[in-house]
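Journal club prep, notes for RB
We'll compare a predicted complex against what the paper describes. Inputs for the fe (ii) ion case:
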Amino acid sequence: MTSLIQNIGRLAVRTFRRDPKLPAGAFTSHYEQLYNLLNAVTTQDINLDLGLLHDHGAFTASKDGAPVTYMQLYENSDVTICVFILKNGVRLPLHDHPGMYGLLKVVHGAVSVQSYSFIGDTTVEGPQSGLMGSPTLSDILPATKHQLLKVCASDPACRLCPGEQNIHEIYSLDGPAAFLDILSPPYGTDERFGLERDCHYYQEIESRWEVSQRESNLVWLVNVPTPSDFWCDQTEYKGPIISEDGDEHGS
Ligand SMILES: [Fe+2]
């Protein structure tokens, strides 16, 4: 019998397969199915070690090791399925997902999600989307700041797409938190299209704007190096193996 996470994995592969021969509308249909299925996932479904979720109090780098633990469930050339575990009071720094879709489902605890959308980001689906304007350090980019969300395990997944809510910062709230992430295409080298999808980090710049600009949620984001206090260790996935079924391209 196929488990929920295996079904999610297969559907994610089907949804994000970059095949130009797929009929129009297939993506939307699969994506909505995937979103609904993902909303039911729990820590039990992925056999998450509850020891990783133990609350040791406010994070201290000298005694707690990495602030964030990464666990990869599956990856092929089109999609990454992974879990991020955040210790008490830490954050995934403000970062982007160049040309990528993302689904983020909290499975333990609660997080705050502060999202932004680059203004003038007219990226559309396709291998080049979101990559033509890759920022270099110190680039300053205008963005819309969205409403701060508090998301917990009983809430539906958050979504991001190539041109919308594509930059975010995520804090654990009131203790450790864990969320399942489905990202497509994956970060890194895209061998199929000969592209690099690097993750860039940002800081919001304080500015003395006119009231009208502040009220419109217009902000400026500066591209910065990876924050030195942020790093991940890794843990092995011990849940049901996500098969290659439905993955015609292999990994
Ligand atoms: Fe992210």
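Talking point for the session: The longest helix spans residues 4-16.
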